Amino acid sequence: MVAVDEVEVVIAHDERATLRVGEVFLKIDADRARLDAEVEAMTLAPIPTPRILWRKPPVLALAALRGTTLGTLGQPSTASPAAWAAAGAALRSLHDAPLPPWPGRSVDKLAADLEDECEWLLANEVLPTGVLPADVVTHNRRIAETVLRPWTPAFTHGDLHVAHVFAEGDTITGVIDWSEAAPGDALFDLASLTLGHPERLDDVLAGYGDADRDLIRAWWSMRCLLAIRWLAEHGFDPNAPGCEIDVLRAQM
Question: Where in this chain does the record put each Aminoglycoside phosphotransferase domain (predicted)?
Answer without folding.
Answer: 22-214
